[in-house]
Amino acid sequence: MRLPIPNRSVALLAIAVLAGLFAAWTARKYLQDRARQLEADARVPMVERVVAADDLPLGTKLSAEHFAVRKVPAATASSDSMPPSRFQELVGGVLLSSLKAGDPILPVHTARTRRAPFSGQIGAGRRAMTIPVDIINSVSGLLEPGDLIDLYVSFEYQRRRITAPLLQGVLVLATGHSTRASGEAGAERAGGYTTVTLDTSPEDAIKLVAARQGGTITALLRHPDDGRPDQRAVRGDLATLLGVAESKPERAKGKVQVIYGNRTLRGIPGLAAIAAQAAGQGAARGVFDLPYTPELASAWMREAGLSEPRHAAPARP
Questions:
Q1: Is the full-model pTM beyond 0.90?
Q2: Which residues, including other chains, have CB under 8 Å from residue 235's CB and lie 6 or more apart?
Q3: In whole angstroms, what is the distance from residue 3 CA to residue 221 CA?
Q4: Segment 159-177, tens digit of pLDDT
């Protein structure tokens, strides 16, 4: 008996149905596996880390636009990887090696740019001298980088105490470790400092070294627009300076003094004291003018691009 031949269209339909069922089963299984994977991932602790937003070549100076954030399993996160809260620590660094997009950016990948040396703030022909702050004993808590000060020295000379201007218009370059470039003057002042650094010429630096060894230095703040030098100094003890010292009576001499016309007033006892009293008793009180006009350090003139001070002083004898 001859079997009937199945219809070709029916066979194709059956194959299509089987293929559809297999595809549906495969899709269902994939979705189930994906769901299980997502559930497993949800149970794994994740952390956010800073990664490269794009491909970054060697030598790139990092800024905020170079960073992206990616979640990674906490178990696989590198111990020195950076969380987003600390990305500022990487800003400004220079890459030591190239990175691909998505690579974590680690501190070892970067180098901080070196700050310009402090010696770069010193002008040509100038010197920076650091001295203990306790020597500057009148304005030690008020000095800030950029201030101008006058330095006075007190010392013994021929058994008399003399106080005279040493340096005037000296620029304060730094207080402790704080400079104008660092912008931390306020914090440094609040925390205190033990040294100040001054801008001086080589000659003035030598004077300052000698004054520290042989006398006491006191500083006075100077207004930045004050360009007038001061040559007033004092000598004598405190009683003389206050004008309360008793003058010793001159001993009477046996011979009558003959005054000649070629003798100066200073060489005639008695008349010199009268002349000093007529001049306002300046000599009696110990106030006198230096025999020269002190030159200003004028460091602020150098910063303004001027080669000479506004108030030029005559050459010292």
A1: no
A2: 157, 160, 161, 162, 163, 286, 288
A3: 123
A4: 888 888 899 999 988 888 8
Give 276-301 pLDDT, tens digit per residue. Answer: 454 444 454 677 777 777 777 755 55
Residue 170 · residue 101 · CB < 8 Å: no
Structure tokens at 231: 């040559």
Element (H, E) at 189: helix 185-191
Report the C-alpha dihedral over residues 239, 241, 246, 247, rounded to 10 degrees: 150
Match 């004054």 to its residue by tokens: 211
Judged on CB neighbours under 10 Å (0-12, 13-18, 19+), 109 is buried
Residue type, 233: A
Structure tokens at 79: 């111990």
Q: In the numeric block, which tokens belong to residue 95?
A: 């890459």
Tokens of 168: 């005037």
> CA-CA distance, 92 to 89, in Å (whole number)?
8
Q: Is the pLDDT of residue 189 over 60?
A: no
CA 156 vs CA 198, 200, 205: distances in Å:
25, 25, 21
- Cα dihedral sign for 138, 214, 290, 170? negative
Q: Give the number of other CB atoms < 10 A from CB of residue 300.
A: 20
- What's CA 167's distance to the chain center, in Å? 23
* Cα–Cα distance list, 101 to 3, 88, 136 (Å): 68, 19, 57
Residue type, 52: A
Name which of 146, 174, 176, 175 is nearest 299 in CA terms.
Answer: 146
